[in-house]
Amino acid sequence: MKDRKLIFELSREGRRGYSLPKCDVPERDLGELLGEDILRKEDPRLPEVSELDVIRHYTNLSQLNYSVDTQFYPLGSCTMKYNPKINEDVAKLEGFTDVHPYQSEETVQGCLELLYNMETLLSEITGMSRISFQPAAGAHGELTGLMIIKAYHENRGEGHRHKIIVPDSAHGTNPASAMMVGYDVVEVQSDERGCVDIEALKDVVDEDVAGLMLTNPNTLGLFEENIIQISEIIHGVGGLLYYDGANLNAIMGMARPGDMGFDVMHLNIHKTFSTPHGGGGPGSGPVGVKEDLIPFLPVPMVEKKDNKYYFDYDRPLSIGKVKTFYGNFNVIVKAYAYILSMGAEGLKAVSQNAVLNANYLMTMLKEYYDLPYDRYCMHEFVLSAKKQKNFDVSAMDIAKGLIDYGFHPPTVYFPMIVKEALMIEPTETESKETLDIFARVMAKLSKIAEEAPHKLKDSPHRAPMRRLDETRAARYPILRWENEG
Amino acid sequence: MSRYIPNTHADVQKMLDKIGVSSIEDLFIDIPKEVFLDRDLDLPEPMWEMELQSHMEELSKKNETVKRNICFLGAGAYDHYIPSVVGHIVGRSEFYTSYTPYQPEVSQGTLQAMFEYQTMICQLTGMYAANASVYDGATALAEAAKMACSVKSKQEVLISRAVHPHSREVLRTYARCNGIDVVEFDYEDGRISIDDLEAKLSNDTAAVIIQTPNFFGILENLDGIGELVHGHDALFIVSVDPISLSLIKPPSEYGADIVVGEGQSLGNPLNFGGPYVGFFATTKKLTRRMPGRIVGETVDADGKRGYVLTLQTREQHIRREKATSNICSNQSLNALIAAVYMSVMGREGLKEVGNLCVQKAYYAYDRLLEIDGLKAVFDAPFFKEFVIDIGKPAHELNRALLDYDIIGGYDISRDYPELEGSWLVAVTEKRTKREIDMLAEKVGELL
Amino acid sequence: MEIKENLKYSRDHEWVKIEGDKVYIGITDYAQDSLGDVVFVELPEVGDTFDAGDDFAVVESVKAASDIYTPVSGTVVEINEELENMPEMVNEAPYESWFIALEIDDPSELDSLMDWEEYQKFCEEEEA
After folding, report:
1. Within this chain, do residues B300 and B387 fall inside the same structural domain, yes or no?
2. What are the DSSP E strand ranges found in A322-410?
3. Rounded CA gap, B337 and B360, in Å?
4. pLDDT in tens, C24-73
5. Do A471 and C63 touch (CB under 8 A)?
6. Partner-chain contact C65 B288, CB within 8 Å
7. Which of A172, A232, B10, B176 could form a disulfide with B316 if both were Cys (CB 3.0 to 4.6 A apart)?
8. How many C-alpha atoms does B94 have within 13 Å on its Cβ side?
9. Among the listed residues B238, B232, B278, B280, the one whose alpha carbon sits nearest the alpha carbon of residue B255
10. CATH code at B126?
11. Are residues B159 and B205 part of one domain?
12. Do B313 and B221 fall within a single domain?
């Protein structure tokens, strides 16, 4: 079989795909204007292709992806729910896409009003006092939130606090973000119920603790039932509680991070509020804080006075800017539209059905797969392919096997505290029929694992590609195309 | 129920039966009573689709746009033409409703497109390897500075005052909590002051950061800077406008170790500031120190060429607190936009865009300087943007120009008090001679 | 699993070959087997100094990165640059794939290392 071509390999000298205006001003010599020695001697080797070449090439590429619009995509921790089309439509309105970020405030009142309203909506949903939209993604929100925590402690003359506590089940971004703001990471283990081990927590807590980062429900899909106690322990030594919003889809309208004692949080707009994941981004990771931390939020904040909206840059204690301009505005537009379509009742139904779907699927699957924490889950759950491993079939083999049945695999090998982890998040937008078929396929794969393991070790067979050699890619990195001629 | 939630009442009942509970609330029993929300959220009544559409249209119409007005505003975000093709490709939901390509067998579309994007960034910058994008130009720059400090085990970076003010601010925010000192060196006649750079450069310097074209639109002459910086065992970080690289010497030729920049101008809408896309490229030696996702080529079990995320041990999901950065999400869809844009423009088209920008910017510059009272501020070559002294606050002129449907240049005194009364004017390939003439005419009348 | 008789071993599964006041350090067959396919080895620079117990190198597989610790103190006098281009050598020939040569500070530190028989027993216990 022939290799699929790269756009560069379609290039033919002299072929054109662009349309540009003629130069209608007197044209001058570039060398004279800019200086010969500053000019490029050799052109960048971009492809020379026709418009149809581009359309066909990328359309064909798109068809090699599994996506929410084409497949069930139960990728745990990622909330791969349906992305409503009306949200895409309204985000494409010229009044949102064709606005320059440096236009004067009186010419961007619509954008500012949207941000202002959105802040009110998200504050109500989360129980936070104020929210900044500047962070571009979840990890960026964590970074911003931790900077705020650091600034808060320093302002109180407690700059010595250097520890951030993270559970052993945490997303890798938590310890990495703590490292990025110069904190030392202290890991606390989980107990046999899959939650933060309270005794272990007490052991690591002292006056050097700046804060604790917690995902709730946590990455096992379990609600931290001792949250009140955890909050008391951390606040008791003057630390702050950080909420990782990755799993907010489980609790909207049921409980709010602000009421649980969290002081700072980020939201993953592209998870909870249905904006598309875009093959890995753009996301949006707004940061919310309680009253005491408002002064430290990034600049600028949107304010309203005499029915006019404006940017407030006069925030002397602010951590500064974490991104150019005001965040991933166009992503916020989509999420705003989503919240307005859903309303309070709709968002509550989202969480209730996300949790119902997850429990239903978990109940069906625990017959075939090991369920390390056998209790009601929230919006997702973690299985282990431990039983299948006895037949030398790994979580990865099960994942690849699912591909042949037209399903995107779950998250595998995370969280790290579960061996051979399969982390499944069905979301509320999937129907019972889809979950039933998925459960039947998972049961079948477990049977194949026992009877004909080699079939799974070889899978996928019906995907656009067979299994790819990741060792080779990492050993001998080829990170760009080079003309062989 | 909502049109986005398919469960019927009958479904719910069957599912509850299977689970063995009597109501959905029973599944939430782990939430302690004290934090259980005992009221409805106070949100507006849900809107039906048409109502939502009208509401959003109404909001959007409260904004002036670069479509309804003639835009001469740049300062880091540019009104370039976006070919129709771009929207059609990124509008394919197989691209926009997929996620991070963790499962390469069913993500070749995204992976190959990112590999092509990385290749194009390498070709423009002349560097060995590029990542699959970061949040924006400013965070790319901050990440680069942090990477340099970690590579060199030093805690001081020098940055030109002619770098975009937002980039410098973001750098300071990132640096502060890591104990990294950010030292600015001055400019002279619109370009970096070599004297000031030499005075501040020392063996404590981990990196020197320069932008070209700089915030004033001026092309820096960076020959010899690489040697100077390397002479102090520091890394040379250059921030560039990718469109300028169709005409201008790539940073690899003057010794750059890391090249970053804002990729918005490559086909991304202005979007009131985001989402944009930061690109990040480096040398072979430093590839494994780069932050962010990277796509690499390999083969599948049949020996067929394919692509995977690679060198992942640098990243947070493997190395946690020892990772090169905490970054997880990239700006994949915006990087795809950039790749499609560069494909459709191609080798010749991108050069033409660059040339049109230069020609029209110089024409506008000359036209404006013909006006009495307007003065040149710097005497150095520029790309698509220039600073001009209008002798009065720029925001006042801008307000007046808006009456003629013109969005004027940037009031540069906001960031450079010494440039009071100066205006940063951007001219892209979209502006016509007639529009530029009209700008000159109106400015002449108004001043 | 292969164990060489002429080498000394640490509890972190490094082998040490003694040549006067210089030692060569690598990882054992047992270690390479449990790490899986090695894709990259990050080495220190000549002239770096380490105390016993410091991590001096990183061995990477596709989805993991493991620190390698030196069992003795000293100064790096040679590094095996071949490993940077051929990381698979660590899997294929672990006892030929030395990482660094160290000029040791204190020869008495070598006394705490295991000989091959002790190490064999140690591995058997680890397995159990």
Report:
1. no
2. 381-384
3. 25
4. 999 999 999 989 999 999 999 999 999 999 999 999 988 888 999 999 99
5. no
6. no
7. A172
8. 19
9. B238
10. 3.40.640.10
11. yes
12. yes
C-alpha distances in Å from residue A215, one per residue of B3, B317, B399, C46: 29, 16, 48, 44
Q: Which of B340, B372, B397 is the last residue of a domain?
A: B340
- The beta strand positions in A327-427, using DSSP E, are 381-384, 411-412, 421-424
Is B103's Cβ below 8 Å from some Cβ in C?
A: no
Q: Indicate the residue type of A184.
A: D
Residue B364 shares a structural domain with residue B335 = no
Interface test with B, best of C59, C60, C63, C68 (most B CBs within 10 A): C60
Report residue A452 as tokens: 């004909």
Q: What is the ipTM of this complex?
A: 0.97
Q: Report the C-alpha gap between C123 and C121 in whole angstroms.
A: 5
Q: Could you give the domains of chain C? A: 8-127 (2.40.50.100)
B12, part of any domain:
no
Per the structure, the count of domains in chain B is: 2
Residue range A243-296, pLDDT digits in tens: 999 999 999 999 999 999 999 999 999 999 999 999 999 999 999 999 999 999
Residue A145: pLDDT band with limits 50, 70, 90: very high
Euclidean distance between CA atoms C105 and A223, whole angstroms: 53
Alpha-carbon span B277 to A137, nearest angstrom:
13
Is C78 touching B (CB cutoff 8 A)?
Answer: no
| Chain C nearest-CA residue for B317 | C63
Question: What does the alpha-carbon distance between residue A394 and residue B104 come to, in Å, rounded to a whole number?
Answer: 17
Same domain, B261 and B402: no
Last-in-domain residue among B322, B340, B358: B340
Q: Say yes or no for a CB contact (<8 Å) between A471 and C87.
A: no
**Record: contact B312-C40, CB cut-off 8 A:** no
Band of pLDDT at residue A485, cut at 50, 70 and 90: very low
The helix-helix angle for A432-451 and A329-365 (nearest 10°) equals 60
Q: Is residue B8 part of a domain?
A: no
Calculate Rg over the CA atoms of chain C: 14
CB contact under 8 A, C39 and A413: no
Beta C8-9 vs A308-312: how paired, if at all? Answer: unpaired
DSSP state of A298: P
Size of interface A-C (CB pairs under 8 A): 15
Q: Are residues B163 and B238 in the same domain?
A: yes
| Structural domain boundaries enclosing B379 | 70-81+347-446
Assess whether B74 and B161 both reside in one domain.
Answer: no
User: Does some domain include residue B62?
Assistant: no
CATH number at residue B399: 3.90.1150.10
With H, G, I as helix, E, B as strand and everything else as coil, classify residue C40: strand
Q: Is the pLDDT of residue A1 over 80?
A: no
Residue A207 above 50 pLDDT? Answer: yes
pLDDT of B340 over the 70 cut? yes
Q: What is the interface size between B and C, counted as CB pairs within 8 Å?
A: 17
List domains and CATH numbers for chain A. Answer: 7-62 (no CATH), 86-341 (3.40.640.10), 348-472 (3.90.1150.10)
Instruction: With beta carbons less than 8 A apart as the criterion, state whether B116 and A8 touch.
Output: yes
pLDDT at A55 over 80: yes
Q: Which amino acid is at B181?
A: D
Give a yes or no: residue B410 inside a domain: yes
User: Residue B342: which pLDDT band, with cuts at 50, 70 and 90?
Assistant: very high
Q: Which of B336, B406, B429 is nearest to B78 (CA)?
A: B429
Residues found in chain A: 485
Whether the Cβ atoms of residue A414 and residue A168 lie closer than 8 Å to each other? no
Question: C-alpha angle C108/C114/C116, rounded to 5°?
Answer: 135
Mean pLDDT computed over B126-133? 98
